[in-house]
Design brief:
The structure is a homodimer of 151-residue chains.
Chain A: H1 4-15, H2 21-28, H3 32-44, E1 48-55, E2 64-72, H4 77-89, E3 93-99, E4 105-111, H5 114-125, E5 131-144
Antiparallel strand pairs in A: 2-4, 2-5, 3-4
Helix pairs in contact in A: 2-3
The first copy, chain A, binds a DNA duplex (17 and 17 nucleotides) through α3.
DNA sequence: GGTGAAATCTACCTAGG
DNA sequence: CCTAGGTAGATTTCACC
């Protein structure tokens, strides 16, 4: 499926999505045509799902970043989907995962400040009927951010 | 700093970094020149930190995704920086944060399979001299992935 | 806000294994 | 027959007006 050149191409595009076929060709010792063709192939086959701008949360006024672990009390399907809808709706929740084990959720949230985070916790998440308990932690520092996926 | 149009432009570019100035102009009711100019300004002022390709981890053979909470035993600066170096080095660790409270780490990891994750835990992270205890959870499902940052 | 030159992408064409 | 390299038309960007 993927050879070493594909892997390097994917790594390069993860660091900078605006690399031209010419630049990619220089890095990979390929002609611009071949570099562009590989990129097209990797897009068509679904290895590349899209291209996204990376923003600076601080500059947007989002000074506080945290993780919230949510333990559900009732695990019925209608309660879960109601909770999932809430997760979809709230813009402060930028990523959300369901975890093995106690079948709870992990939420990655960005807020303007601590009080906004507390409001989110106590007036949105905790009051939700499916939620039994939440546990939140604030991010102090981000050491690594979406490093290129290993292959 | 930012008006409503800037916010919408940032949201659009987070979903698709390859939108042209012409397309952005249509969305925002701006001329292509003005749309492109706004994008340049937001890049220059640091609101946009870069553009990244989004990959499909499954297609790359990374079937297992998890979070690892690391509690440090010794909180000395030399131990912490040694741990930070290890985090930088391991490609399976794609994101890493330091958290308030017990001053520990949260790691987001991608592995080929469960045994690779266990190897990472028991032969790389746990043996590290600064580490006292780890707690890992596997991701079952990803409901939301890097949704546009709220503003 | 618009215009034009320079650069880029994409599809097509040609050559070589 | 399939893959690599090159070329032309359309599109996009960016500096200038």
């Amino acid at each position: 499926m993927l050879d070493a050149t594909d892997t390097r191409l994917l790594a390069a595009l993860q660091k900078d999505a605006h690399l031209t076929a010419h630049q990619l060709g220089e890095m990979l010792n390929l002609s611009p045509s071949q570099a562009g063709r590989r990129r097209q192939r990797l897009e068509a086959e679904g290895y590349i799902t899209g291209y996204a701008a990376r923003l600076d949360p601080r500059k947007l006024g989002l000074q506080v970043q945290g993780f919230v672990q949510v333990h559900l009390g009732t695990h019925g399907p209608e309660q879960s989907s109601s909770f999932a809808r809430m997760v979809e709706t709230r813009p402060e929740i930028t990523s959300a995962w369901t975890m093995t084990g106690e079948a709870d959720y992990l939420l990655h949230v960005y807020c303007e400040d601590l009080s906004a985070l507390n409001t989110l916790l106590h007036e949105v998440i905790l009051p939700h009927p499916a939620v039994a308990r939440v546990q939140s932690q604030i991010v102090m520092d981000q050491l690594k951010r979406d490093a290129p996926l290993p292959t």
